[in-house]
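Record pair follows.
FIRST:
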Amino acid sequence: MLAGEEGIGRLDFDNSNLAFFVGNLALAVILLDGGMRTKTSTFRVALWPSLSLATLGVVLTTASVGVFAAWLLGVPLIYGLLLGATVGSTDAAAVFNLLRNSGVKLNERVGGTLEIESGANDPMAILLVVMLTGLLQSADHISVLSFLGQMLQQFAIGSIAGVLGGKLLLAVLKKVPLVEGLYALLIISFGLAVFSGVNIIGGSGFLAVYLVGLTVGNGRVKQLEAVSQVMDGLAWLAQAGMFLLLGLLVTPSSLLTHGLEAVAIAAFLIFIARPLAVMICLLPFDFRWPERLYISWVGLRGAVPIVLALYPIIAGLSNSNLLFEITFTVVLISLLLQGSTVPLVARWLNIIVPAAPAPTTRFSLVDNTASHYSLELYEFLVQAEKVKIPAAIVQNVPSKTVSTPQLVSLVRDHQPIIVNEETILTTGDRIWMLLHPEDVEDVAVIFSQEASSSFLLQNFFGEFSIRGDAPLLDLAKAYGVPIDGLDPQDTAEQLLQRQIGKTLVVGDRVRFGSLRLTVREMKEGKVEAIGLKLQDKSH
């Protein structure tokens, strides 16, 4: 905006078609990158809630904002609904970047729902905007059945093409040898080809390109670590370029013409329409009230609504500039108000899960999915004082086998250190190890004992750990919890499922007498470990 016609740059830019074209390509790149960073394990707990928000949630938001905007602006209802549809979807670029760079880790149920929703709700918003724009352009009426048919077509073609395209790209990546830097370009060019092709045949290109990224990102490609770093930079570049053009396109002084109305519509969207839609859509699912409130708050609007607001301008509709200016203001308010408070609200609602110890760097060395055998090189940052490297690891240097974790190097003050069983680690040391991926979490804990014991174990998960199938009766007897009404076959996992729901995630917790039980580790949908914390009965 500062570079535009009323800013210091004095650049006169009013090419809506170019901005629309660049915006769509940039969003495709951002969705591709977001899909690559989404784990398919989150679909276990977040798929159906996300689809509910991505379909019914968008419709409810469109309807409520549309009625309010039509009344406030004094325009026909269909124009209000068009504005509601324009701001009806959350923005994938904003959600992906803010959640991953906010410094907080959400539980899988909340984080997965927000990310999948933002990647899947664009088709519904685009369909509503296109159909409402078409109605305003012609006198023809579109039936409910026609609308539902087009919606199913968009989702079906986008889903099928996205999954099949992702599998094809995965096969190409595993078979075709390229210079490492070219793999990211291959992924982006393939993703954009799928995006364009699906749009041409009447499907949702946004959904398709997201699923391409999801399939590739979870496909155990050897080059994925290097690719993800390049993709991250390209996604940021796409986002910056898109917002630069959109900022040039807007005339700042025109935003003030209906500034008060735009602020009122933004407040209605943030505090009434979005929360109402979330509460209705999540009624059938196992979400705690703080989780529902947080999902409603992180309904971030970003570049997608601004790009959608270009549809009426390109179509030459009356009042199209009014819709664009209000949409732009709503997006600014959403990003400034909601975007800046993402970590604060998460802490206030107490839905943060402490991040588990993890490696700082990873490189794939051997990948053989056919035999389920892989080997990777990991770097760990030591965060504890006076920790010894386990003797079993030291003795494997320089073993020819890789059946157990193997130490490759210990680096201290940028110098390699000779390691033996007496070596004492200090904070800041960097350990390089050869590992199978399934051993990473166990090894990471060794080098993060201080953080693990002081915060993860005691403050959040509790002082002790028990198995998920631990009998409740034994637990009650050991800690003086009343045993009246307890079934001898009841387990700690069953107690959590009764009080929270069947789909548990790390961080879920319940009270059991004077104990607090918190899910600490999940494996294939089953509770592996539960943290146990003693509490005062008055707490």
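SECOND:
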Amino acid sequence: MQNHITKILLVEDNSGDAYLIREALHTTRNLNFELTQADNLSETLRILSKHEIDIVLLDLSLPDSSGFSTFSHVHSHATQIPIIVLTGSDDDELAARTMQSGAQDYLIKGTFTEDLLARSIRYSIERHNLLIEMEKARLHEQHLAYHDVLTSLPNRLLFYDRLEQALIHAKRYSGMLGVLFLDLDGFKQINDTKGHSHGDRLLQIVAQRLKKNVRESDTIARLGGDEFIILLKGITTIDDVFKVGMKVLEVTPKPLLLDNESINITCSIGASIFPCDGDTTEDLIKKADFAMYKAKSLGKNTFHLYNSEVDKKNSKRQSLENKLRHAIESDHLLLYFQPQVSLRTGEISGLEALVRWDDPELGLILPSEFIPLAEETGLILPLGEWVLKSACTQNKIWQTAGYKQLPISINLSARQFREISIVQTIHNALQEVELEPKFLKIEITETHVMQDVDYTISTLEILREMGIHVALDDFGTGYSSLNYLKRLPIDQLKIDKSFINDIPENLHDATILTAISTMAQTLGIKVVAEGVENESQLHFLQSIECDTIQGYYFSRPLPTHELLKLIDSEKKLILNQPKEEIVVV
């Protein structure tokens, strides 16, 4: 306290007592202070309202107030300032009452020394500051319990409470309210490509825009991830909800500037209304969520009101999700295998593992239906791990049984490949069945590669050092450049079937395929053509020295027992004959 000047307000109407207290303060060591004096309650309150005061030395007996009433008035005007009561009244009851009400100390005039007064002032200030800090910590902890840390918006817990209270009020007074469920479009891609810091700042900006475009009486909350929810109270028509939804759609897409880069983001919004769509918090939120998924399916950047058709579709989606989860956990999925054939030997040179789902009730469900569902729900991770382990296990079983040793390709989803533990997961799968790494090939799409090129390269280098082969799938459909392609540690390019469909008649596609083949040969990368279905396509691919084909011309994807029959038959392409005589035997 030597460098700090303590600003003291002495409230004392007796000049003699005031003199003694002032002298005691002046003779006190280690106390630098600035003293202001008031001799009545009115003057005291005026000073407190206009001046910065660190501590009040308060006599309770004043010309315009006395006893506890004096303390009560001063304390109510200075709740953030410590108060020491200095009184000639040795009244235990009064002392206890003032201390319980917030006084820091209670001293009897004529009984304390200068050092005691100095200690009381010092400890009162420190104790009062500690109490203030504790209260701030309590309020901060309370805030964290009910608010989102990133955006400071109410969290799920607080939103549910406010919605519940709003429902009680609306039911009592026959009112209406609306719930808007909002999800950002393409946020995951921004988060994955730009980094989580960009994603976090984007969420903060969106939260601020939402706050500026709804009424103070409404509640905006962040449920988690890129999901926000809005409670609209006091609405009178469905049109009120529609207007707010459209307003949010208009303000969200405005360009955001992050690190001097302009980013555009849109949102999809679903809405439910009380009382027509439900009368519980769970009903309204669930149905707004359903409506939001409908908005997504309509092309995103769209507002959609809940209706029963949406409910049925999303109920089916939820049921399908539950069935898929059970199928993965219960090992009720199937692997089919499509042969890959060498255009140099005509023999099967590898297999691609493809997952199939044959549900006892629904029958065979196409991958085009359940793979996107797995991506949306996060089930793609356990599904991908199941495919990996099952493919490795099946390959080892065939090798042990004496069948030809062939590498098996599996597709890694973007989410699976981005998992920090992906290398360890693959290593464990190989170790568990004692399969050599050279019999496993990992396929990733070029679109996934470009989301984070440096991460992709480092991960693929580790996999190749382990002895695992790597293929770049769907080549030509994404946006990879030659500059990145020459850096990628890959063994194969798999040309997407969209380039194969119309060759050789489509000269544009034929020219692209020729260029890809020549480039790959220069880089020392093998080329696999997918979707080969007829002899004309095969002839052309031979002419440009493509290495491998895969498609219905040789074989569709087969279950295990049919594949083994195919292998036992030693079926192969007969090559190096005049083109019109190339046959499959």
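COMMENT: Residues 6-144 form a domain with the Rossmann fold fold (CATH 3.40.50.2300).
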